[in-house]
Amino acid sequence: MFSDPAANLAKLGVQAGMRVADIGAGSGFYSIEAAKLSGPSGRIYAVDVQKDLLERLRGVAAAQGIRTIEIIWGNAEKIGGTKVKESFVDRAIVSNLLFQLTKPDDFVLELKRILKPGGKALVVDWSEVSPIGPKTVVTEMQARTLFEKAGFKLEQLFGAGDHHYGMIFIR
Asked: DSSP secondary-structure letter at 16?
């Protein structure tokens, strides 16, 4: 099975009214699912550096009647680059992004900056054994080390499909 956003988000505990940041939102599969879970009183902050993907997400959300997703063109590899307030979100999503980062330490610090104390981050990325993944990946152990070095605490490890690993970290 390929990675399932709904199943992975269930582990993150997104609830009605929560503020959720989808960092590197891409095509928005996680943003759409998070919006359904957080309901009309929640807010999703879909951040990406690719404007075309954000515009596509805006169209998909509108077609589904979802009005709680805020599109943010931003760079999560810069402190303040997500344009999200400090200690503002309850949950954060990082899916298929770690392997693309050029400044992973800055990225994790930006994630920590926007999460509330006690907030949680879902990390899903390519497994090193996947035959269809990118040539260079951030292994599960490398990801764990990266987040723990920034002060995150690992709450859970899980298989996130045949080609991905998943982790939940607490700020």
From this structure: T
Residue-wise pLDDT for 104-118, tens only, equals 999 999 999 999 999
Cβ atoms 66, 7 nearer than 8 A: no
CA–CA distance, 89 with 38 (Å, rounded to integer): 12
pLDDT of residue 135: 86
Strands 153-159 and 164-170: antiparallel
- pLDDT for 132 equals 83
Whether residue 14 contacts residue 45, with contact meaning beta carbons closer than 8 Å, is answered with no
pLDDT given at position 140: 95
User: What structural domains and CATH numbers belong to the chain?
Assistant: 5-170 (3.40.50.150)
C-alpha 159/C-alpha 101 separation (Å) is: 22
Q: Is 6 helix (H, G, I), strand (E, B) or coil?
A: helix
Q: Which residues of the chain have pLDDT under 50?
A: none
Could you give the 3-state DSSP secondary structure of residue 94?
strand
Contacts with 59 (C-beta within 8 Å, 6 or more apart), sequence order = none
Over the Cα atoms of the chain, what is R_g? 15
For residue 1, the model assigns a pLDDT of 54
Position 134 scores a pLDDT of 85
CA distance 126 to 108: 18
* Residue reference for tokens 């990801």: 143
